[in-house]
Amino acid sequence: MSKNVAFMKALNWLAEKVIVETLSNSPAFQRFALRTASRVEAAKKEALKGVEGLKDGEAAKKMMDNQQSGVERASAWLDWAKADLEKMGGGAGKGPSAPTKTKKPN
Questions:
Q1: How far is CA 45 from the centre of its chain?
Q2: Neighbours of 89 (CB within 10 A)
Q3: Domain ranges, residue 19
Q4: pLDDT 10s digit of each residue in the chain, 106 long?
Q5: What is the pTM of this model?
Q6: 102 within 8 A of 87, measured Cβ to Cβ
Q7: What is the Cα Rg of the chain in Å?
Q8: If we measure between CA atoms, which residue out of 75, 80, 76, 82 comes closest to residue 103?
Q9: Pair 28, 74 in one domain
Q10: Is residue 18 in a domain?
Q11: Number of neighbouring beta carbons within 10 Å of residue 10
Q12: How many domains is the chain built from?
């Protein structure tokens, strides 16, 4: 069994050496490696900008603004629904008298 382990280690070393030498001499692989490295650096810079924004409170302010606009949209939709119900039949406890078409807010 030790012969198999030694043979597998030697085969693994040989394959690794051939693969590494082949890739290191390949212009296509070198271009790929450079593009990947530059993209990783760009992603790091963007992530750092995001962290800086969190420190400054800009991201929190944007999140609050988005939440506020969502609340405003929900409120506008509720107002539209109430008005539509009133047009249809007059409110709670009464069935709609006739369907009407009204424009739903965005």
A1: 17
A2: 14
A3: 1-54
A4: 677 898 999 999 999 999 999 988 999 999 999 999 999 999 998 888 776 766 666 667 777 777 777 788 888 888 888 887 777 765 555 544 555 555 666 6
A5: 0.39
A6: yes
A7: 32
A8: 80
A9: no
A10: yes
A11: 10
A12: 2
